[in-house]
Design goal:
Elements (H helix, E strand, L loop, with lengths): L1 H10 L4 H9 L2 E5 L4 E3 L7 E7 L2 E6 L5 E7 L4 E2 L2 H6 L6 E4 L3 E7 H10 L2 H23 L2 H11 L1 H4 L4 H8 L3 H16 L1
Antiparallel strand pairs: 1-8, 2-7, 3-6, 3-8, 4-5, 4-7
Helix pairs in contact: 1-2, 8-9
Length: 191
């Protein structure tokens, strides 16, 4: 697992000494589907790097509703910066949606890197910020149908691992809207 982790970090712009430092304090994990990594309301003790599989973060309301925050898949960092920065409980649940292979790092390492403005902390922060900006652009600049088409173009392998409801949540639409979009695309394709 560490060979994959090292290759992905290297392609992500991490320097060899940064990669070695991350590996030295990490632990590989293989977990089944529907395994809870962080309960909503718990103080996170770890951060994760996804090698394979899909994780899901969602907000749970007192009324029993669930709102998708994000899906994480291969080469994604899973870091709750709000909890880290404010020293508070996780506002969301994090679970696996498929069997996953992860690299786990203790959050206290991240706290110490943050306190010293360590280059690794800044690199992780930059990586997360770029991901958030890309997702924001995806949600704001494209129509639901365009988002679905982009999702199909860029994440066809991921599409096979998610339900229609999960895909709709990622796209910020309802499952009914997704069904309508699929029907329109299929109708155009058959013309």
């Amino acid at each position: 697992m560490y060979v994959e982790f090292e290759q992905q970090l290297s392609s992500g712009g991490f320097e060899p000494d940064e990669i070695n430092q991350l590996i030295s304090c990490s632990q590989p994990l293989e977990l089944p589907t529907r395994h809870t990594l962080i309960h909503q309301g718990d103080i996170p003790q770890q951060i994760y790097f996804v090698l394979e599989g899909v994780c899901h973060a969602c907000y749970l309301t007192e009324q029993g509703k669930s709102f998708s925050k994000e899906f994480y898949w291969a080469q994604d960092w899973v870091i709750g910066f709000e909890s880290l920065i404010k020293h508070q409980a996780s506002p969301y649940l994090l679970e696996t949606l498929t069997p996953v292979r992860l690299i786990e790092l203790p959050i206290h390492i991240l706290h110490s890197w943050r306190a010293t403005r360590h280059s690794l902390y800044l690199k992780l922060l930059e990586t997360q910020l770029m991901h958030k900006e890309n997702k924001e652009r995806f949600m704001l600049l494209y129509s639901p149908e365009e988002r679905y088409q982009l999702f199909n173009d860029h994440f066809s392998a991921l599409k096979k691992q998610l339900t229609n409801g999960q895909i709709a949540a990622y796209l910020g639409i309802t499952p009914i809207s997704l069904s309508r979009i699929k029907a329109r695309i299929n109708a155009k394709a058959s013309d």
